[in-house]
Specification:
CATH architecture of the largest domain in chain A: 3-Layer(aba) Sandwich
Order of helices and strands of chain B: EHEEHEE
Structural class of chain A: alpha/beta
Number of strands of chain A: 15
Structural class of chain B: alpha+beta
Number of strands of chain B: 5
Helix content of chain A: 25-40%
Largest interface: A-B, 42 and 32 residues
Shape of chain B: globular
Radius of gyration of chain A: 22 Å
CATH superfamily of the largest domain in chain A: Peptidase S8/S53 domain
Shape of chain A: globular
Largest sheet of chain B: 4 strands, antiparallel
Strand content of chain A: 15-25%
Strand order of the largest sheet of chain A: 7-8-6-10-11-12-13
Distance between the termini of chain A: 25 Å
Order of helices and strands of chain A: EHEHEEHEHHEEHEEHEHEEEEEHHH
Oligomer: heterodimer
CATH topology of the largest domain in chain A: Rossmann fold
CATH class of the largest domain in chain A: Alpha Beta
Distance between the termini of chain B: 38 Å
Radius of gyration of chain B: 15 Å
Number of helices of chain A: 11
Number of helices of chain B: 2
């Protein structure tokens, strides 16, 4: 089901706008990329062929979507503004769809899946999985969570702040985003589904303050809380840079082993200190560099290692797996609702969510979970020093 | 006065009573105890840099290390 491309670099795209921002988004498309979309109400012929003939494109304000014809440089210009919060939420290639002549029991066609889920969920094969994370407790240690976020309505969230003077309410955004990826919704009111273990039990531990700062003391207290509460998985999208050749922390490693002995697998971000396009690969950060903690690197939608993703260096910690970590769409504190950001911070909760799915599917914990995650990872044609066992896959 | 250090202390027991006992000894030797984490056989706290050696010498203490600090980028940054 690939799109028709006339070879000129011009192709058709779906542009999704933020809620109530269709008009603003339409203006942005014109100002940034020179794309003029016509309001759907102004077009007489509402047929497929007729709509395809409209130069620029067509905008449906009620749906918050436009279908546009654009050259590659125009779309690149538009993608450039995706990084700042604005009216444009997503840009995707238009897919051609065909009537399905097979019985209804066939799996959903890929085209409708593409609009329904983030690229990250699709890359880890989550939509096809029957696992939900139900019955599995996932602790996410970060900046807390926006407890009033509509995408978490109906979810029971157990929360605890380990920051003196601050409650668990997320004043930064990072915590809400990573909890969204690990445990969030597949069917939010607005935008694509983005949560991996969408029926898991959320344990939100605030170990980083609203300014994003924290210490080992707070994190260890959070880990102890998670272990005491029977959390099978702890997700830590946090890291402190280390020097090449710097040994891992023996005290933290010992704490991680105790947690593992008591049924809790800790998954942490490999770190964002690399600048691979400048030839710099930085070592895996603390505490992901501890052998008993699973270190997660980041890949982009083309399954290439993200520029910033730390790698396995001699006498330093190892990258164990990779997961989607570039342009990851997830929840953000209201009123912004959602945000698209990058980092090994975003890759980590994809793995934590899959670990919860595996825990449910195989009724396994700790070392068995580690084995399942590694064994089922999609092997990538990339150095294992960068990707470990490969791209995590849902059961 | 020596600079203050936040530290992690690893101990060789899982018994809460023994952990509490070691915590008391650490306190006598200059550790301002933050938390006794029985589940992880770990004690955290703050001490003078000059006390680090004597803390390590206490029976049952496996290692004493300084804590790392963490800092996320500001919320508006693209890479988190």
């Amino acid at each position: 089901m690939t799109q028709q491309d006339d070879g000129s670099g011009v192709a058709r795209y779906l542009v999704l706008f933020e809620e109530d921002a269709a008009d603003e988004g339409s203006r942005a498309m014109t100002n940034v990329a020179g794309i003029r979309a016509v309001h759907s109400g102004e077009i007489a012929a509402q047929t497929g062929d007729g709509l395809a003939q409209v130069p620029g494109g067509v905008l449906w304000p009620d749906l918050g979507v436009a279908v546009v014809t654009a050259a590659t440089d125009q779309i690149n210009a538009l993608r450039g503004v995706l990084s700042t919060r604005g009216p444009i939420a997503m840009i995707e290639r238009e897919q051609l769809v065909y009537a399905i002549s097979t019985p209804a029991s066939q799996p959903m066609p890929a085209s409708s899946e593409e609009a329904a889920f983030t690229w990250g969920l699709r890359a880890i094969n989550a939509p096809a999985s029957t696992a939900t994370g139900a019955g599995v407790r996932v602790a996410v240690l970060d900046t807390g969570i926006d407890l009033d976020h509509p995408d978490f309505a109906g979810r029971e969230i157990v929360s605890r702040s380990f920051i003196e003077g601050e409650d668990v309410d997320d004043g930064h955004g990072h915590g809400t985003h990573v909890i969204g990826t690990a445990c969030g919704s597949r069917t939010p009111d607005i935008g694509p589904g983005y949560g991996v273990a969408y029926e898991s039990e959320i344990y939100a531990g605030k170990v980083l303050n609203n300014a994003g700062a924290g210490t080992d003391g707070g994190i260890l207290a959070g880990i102890a809380w998670a272990v005491q509460n029977g959390c099978a998985v702890v997700s830590m999208s946090l890291g402190a840079p280390v020097q090449p050749g710097q040994p891992h922390s023996v005290t933290f490693e010992r704490a991680a082993r105790r947690a593992m002995n008591r049924g809790t697998l800790i998954i942490a971000a490999a770190g964002n200190e690399s600048a691979r396009s400048d030839g710099v690969i930085a070592p895996v950060s603390h505490p992901a560099n501890c052998p008993t903690i699973m270190a997660v690197g980041a890949i982009d939608p083309r399954h290439k290692v993200a520029d910033f993703s730390c790698g396995t260096l001699p006498d330093s910690g190892a990258v164990d797996l990779v997961a989607p970590g570039v342009d990851v769409h997830s929840s953000w504190p209201m009123p912004d609702r959602h945000n698209t950001i990058s980092g090994t911070s975003m890759a980590t909760p994809h793995v934590a969510g899959v670990a919860a799915l595996d825990a449910q599917a195989y009724q396994g914990t700790t070392w068995e979970l580690w084995a399942r995650l590694s064994q089922t990872a999609e092997r990538l044609p990339l150095p294992s020093t960068d990707v470990g066992a490969g791209l995590v896959q849902a059961p | 006065m020596a600079p203050l250090r936040k530290v992690i202390v690893s101990v060789d027991t899982e018994e809460p009573e023994t952990l509490a006992d070691i915590a008391a000894q650490l306190s006598e030797h200059g550790l301002d105890v933050d938390a006794v984490l029985d589940t992880l056989s770990t004690i955290t706290g703050t001490c003078d840099e000059s006390d680090l050696g004597s803390l390590t010498a206490i029976p049952g203490v496996l290692d004493v290390e300084t804590q790392y600090s963490y800092q996320l980028p500001p919320p508006t940054k693209r890479v988190q």
